[in-house]
Amino acid sequence: MKVGDTGLYHTPVLTGVVARLAEGARRAVDCTVGGGGHAALILAGGAELLAIDRDSEAVAHAREFLSSDRVRFLTGSFASPDVVSAIREYRPDFVLLDLGVSARQLEVERRGFSFRPGVPLDMRMDCSDRYAPTAADLLNNRSQDELERLFWDNADEPRARRLARTVVKRRRQRPFAVSDDLVGAIREALGPGAGPKDFARIFQALRMEVNRERQELESALPQLLDAMVPGGVMVVIAYHSGEDRIVKGYFKAWSRACNCPPGQPVCSCPGIPRGRLLTRRPVRPTPQEVAANPRARSARLRAFRKSDAG
Ligand code: SAH
Known about the structure:
With 310 residues, the protein is α/β, with parallel strands linked by helices. 45% of the residues lie in helices and 12% in strands. The chain contains 13 helices and seven strands. The chain has helices spanning 15-22, 37-44, 56-66, 81-90, 103-107, 135-141, 144-155, 160-173, 179-190, 196-210, 213-227, 241-255, 287-292; strands spanning 27-30, 48-53, 71-75, 94-98, 233-238, 275-277, 300-306. It has a seven-stranded mixed sheet with strand order 3-2-1-4-5-7-6, sandwiched between helices. S-adenosyl-L-homocysteine binds at residues 6, 10, 12, 31-32, 34-38, 52-55, 58, 77-79, 98, 100-102, 125, 216.
């Protein structure tokens, strides 16, 4: 199998840019190994690798696909304390996060990420966590206000209030269980013009909430920066504007000399930047890449280099 080709599992995005940024890395961490496409590129560059995913099925696949004695695997979220301390001990000089879900996760129906008919509303990336709330649990238990905020914040849905109200009305008649229940509510709230793009957007919003994706990213990034050795490079690929905003915000703040809260009269922080941005603008896939791999469409890559001072 050629480097970067994970077969039918997942097509890695922006491989040329990732490979270039990983050049010279000795100890890399792939926080979202998925099908192992990016990981294979990193290994081909000669680095050792700590490969992480919160999805045990992804880890099992990547273990087989990569089959290298230079890789160690870890199952868990990159934001969990155990995983963060393992990363810190590894002392990486390269850290990659390729956020979101893999093509495989979207395709395996029992995982419940898809809006194809009859799919259970599950959406947990970590399918071993039997007690974590599923998408159906959120739809059946969250208050109308919470649902409205979720659709507004995560899906930029202008009719968030109407959709939340429709969900609450419908769940009184019958609890939400499968994709069709949510698609029906979206159709009712958004009108007959609602189509696959709306379904995808709202399903993604729910998925982000089920897996607490923004919160995890927000808490992980500063810890990952601390974990890297001086001069280390962090690369994040986001597929959602809300996530990209978090990455951009951190990278900008880390590049500034002073990070005191606005309005503070005298600077009390160390007054030196944590490093420098390697991407002034986010790197986007070319039209050719998007044509070959439509899932790359919304990818935005940003990179940051930690200063030699640490
Ligand atoms: N770069 C990979 C594809 C990654 S797809 C490749 O080349 O094949 C995104 C992966 O990130 C999924 O497998 C998903 O389970 C994982 N993931 C998402 N959020 C995570 C988190 N907080 N911690 C660990 N893994 C996560």
